[in-house]
Amino acid sequence: MYRIEEPIYFYLLAIIPAIVVLFLLVLWWKKRTQRKFSDADLLQKLAPNSSTFKSVLKLVMLSIGITFLVISLVNPKMGTKLKTVKREGVDIVFALDVSKSMLAEDIAPNRLEKSKQIISKIIDKLGSDRVGIIVYAGNSYPLLPITTDHGAANMFLQNANPDMVSSQGTAISEALELAKTFYNNDEQTNRFLIIISDGEDHQEETKQVAQNLANEGVKIYAVGVGTENGGPIPIRVNNSVVGYKKDNKGETVITKRNAEVLEEIADIANGKYLDGNVTENPVSAIADIIANAEKNEFETKQFSDYKDQFQWFLALGLLFLVLDIFLFDKKTKWLRKADLFNEEKNKK
């Protein structure tokens, strides 16, 4: 297994085609100038040791040397073995509401982006805890299975949007049902489900599903985003607002946060409701709860003992550059005698 530490340096390989183009231009210019100066026979007598092959060989040596130096800057690392690492943590599943109502801009920049900020900041405060992400609207969708890779969680989170879910609405109960499948460690005693939503369009069976999760030891914390006064749902085309969602009567729909629904779900599952309009409040509260929770031990497998390999490529790069320096453009005497390319024969 290998790892690339600084892949950005691969862009430096663009130097090689630039050098090749420059070499060809110089070679063309030299040939053109020589033809103006004298004919081929006279040039052969004036510069009998001139060798195009040696010039090309120097170019190849230089290109190889630069390639190895660039690879050394990239610093490939080799993983020597796979080992099992024991970690301690809890399992946390985020259920993110991506319904159209989450696009309302009653809080800046909008409810959905505010929710993403909250989740991202909570993840950044976690230790070795495992996280998973569910997105839901009219139905639910697993965005990221439970994992210890917090970087991947943040990356997947940024792509969450209403278009990911086929039907609209706020089917919290479906998200709760899906969350059950995420907790794959039977020995884990501390399991958390964090719902982030405006609480609109809830279903009656949500309370029963929340109770079932509580019976299985899952604590649900609900974070409400949006205001009680609410706001319209913008319709965007090419990032510009072209109007607002309207109902069947042609009136602008005003979506409001329904905190009571979220409070009921959290209370049933031994959790707590938190106001998410100020990002830092739910982030600090949930981070403290998880930090003080009893941690369970679990195992993950990963490649370890990654060792730097840049020194080998650096040595090879310097070797080829030194060879290029000591390689002259004129023909080598013993090669001339060997006449490997039938140059003497062709003259006759």
UniProtKB/TrEMBL annotation:
Residues 91-269 form the VWFA domain. PROSITE patterns: VWFA. This is VWA domain-containing protein. It comes from the Bacteria. The chain crosses the membrane at residues 6-29, 55-74, 310-328. Keywords: Cell membrane, Membrane, Transmembrane, Transmembrane helix. Pfam families: VWA. It comes from Polaribacter haliotis. The lineage of its organism: Bacteria, Pseudomonadati, Bacteroidota, Flavobacteriia, Flavobacteriales.
